[in-house]
Hints:
Blueprint: H1 2-10, H2 18-26, E1 35-39, E2 42-45, H3 47-51, H4 53-59, E3 63-66, H5 77-80, E4 87-90, H6 105-117, E5 122-125, H7 132-144, H8 149-157, H9 166-189
Parallel strand pairs: 2-5, 3-4, 3-5
Antiparallel strand pairs: 1-2
Helix pairs in contact: 2-9, 6-7, 7-8, 7-9
Amino acid sequence: MDQRRSQREQDGYRTPSVSELQHLLLDNMSPRGPVNQVWPNIYIGNAATARDKSTLFNMRITHIVNAAHGPYHVNTGSRFYTDMSVDYYGVEADDCSDFNLSPYFNPVAKFIRAALSQRGKVLVHCAMGVSRSATLVLAYLMICENLTLLEAINAVRRHRDICPNAGFLSQLRRLERTLAWERDYKMAAYKP
Length: 192
């Protein structure tokens, strides 16, 4: 995987600006429905999907990340799913550009990775399944699947239109730089 990153850097990859990312995300948008599988066993959906227990059961969802947790958002929570065999992770996030979602990137990535290692199926949702939930899935793909931000966006957009707000895009750009720095630091530390 480090060889893939090194090759990207040699090929001149650079993290796109927020405006470039917004242009990419808004280009050729078309509705895709309330829930879509965007990566093997990872789904992004909206609040209606999260509340539809029969749909969740039929999809065999085993883990849910609610990126709009709380009484003033999508108020489901682990109590809502007590009659189902579902592990729940709630993130009480606002979909506004000044909300700092980045403290949740690693914990949510760890939750998703653990679910997938148990052969689970994960629904990541917010109100519309476009901004908060998409941001958390993009962060997972960057942290655990070693994708660049642009690769992660393109992978998800093949299956669902997403549009993280400008603040979330900035946080994902910072994540990409941090991951690159950590990788470079580790490589330098292991040189003989």
